[in-house]
Amino acid sequence: MRIVFKTSYDADIRLFKHNAQAFWYLLLFAFAILLPFLVSDFLIGEATLVLIWAICGMGLMLLVGQTGQASLGHAAFMAVGAYSNVIYQLNFNMPFLLSFPLAGLTAGVAGALVALPTTRLHGIYLAIATLAISVLTEDIIIILEPITGGIAGIFAPDIEIFGYTFNRYGNPVELYWLVLAITFIVIYAYRNILRSPTGRAFAAVRDSEVSAKAMGVNVARTKMVAFAISCTITGLGGALMGHFATVFTNETFNLIISITLLLIIVVGGLGTIHGAFFGSIVFVMLPLMISLTRDAVGSLTGSGSITIPGLESGIFGAILIGFILFEPMGLYGRWLKIRTYFELFPFYRKDMFRRQKSYLKTERTR
């Protein structure tokens, strides 16, 4: 068991708790770089998709897990990022290095505009408002057909950086490394936001808005900033998703995608960067495992491959219900419990991670 003594505020907000943790994360990053030399191109494509979903998941995690604001409309901001990125490249001849951050900024501005009338909403009312935005986005894409392509969709060109082309099918390994680099930058920015006064304000609003106001936090402004940053990160993920999908329409970023994002962060573990990655791995790899299992069962029984409509959605729903009921801290929370058990054995207590109430007595009448 490792004991960390914190003697100053700087020690409490340092990027890594101790040098051993920094070593393990460095080793993990090195493994991610070397992964293309260890697996096939197909699995590299799946790993790229995991990273893209993780970026989108981190965007929603910042809003739901760090600030405590429910959202069922983040697919809309993925669409804003994807469409604006391609439109900037095709209509304004912008290079990817310029269109990509501008796409994220566009999604962030859209999120801030949405947050202006919704910052005073709470819980289910905020979720319904964002749900309406997700539904309206599909209609807006059709209305703006001259720009967005409408139901015919829009084609995302290859990514070009300094004359080098990145394509999902032409050079999947190079695309994986590019997405990995972007993911690393997003993680670093996300981590530093949480260490800043703004990140502390997010946590204060999440834990108790009444207490946050008492400490001088502008709750409405904090929610709007959280919404803007969250949508910016989600927009970046949507821009990458557009290039990964190559062609996308108004139905690509639908309500199911918003629910999927929520499933990813709940299954992975709310309030942690790790949760976005664990949830993305489950979401991307589970259909592959279902397909392999279905083929194996079909070959054993001699009945061939059997397709059951709605099987994946049913399994995803069952997994989500199971985690909410039996492991609300998600996969990362389960890992923390296992690690703590071995660190403290035989002094581990079963109720160490007992769920706490998310409100104070002063907020029960709100």
Automatic annotation (TrEMBL):
Keywords: Cell membrane, Membrane, Transmembrane, Transmembrane helix. The keyword Zinc does not apply. It is a multi-pass membrane protein. Coiled coil: none annotated. It holds the Pfam family BPD_transp_2. The chain crosses the membrane at residues 21-38, 44-64, 71-90, 96-116, 123-144, 175-193, 225-246, 252-270, 277-294, 314-332. InterPro entries: ABC_transp_permease, LivM-like. It is found in: Cell membrane. This is Branched-chain amino acid ABC transporter permease. It comes from Hoeflea poritis.
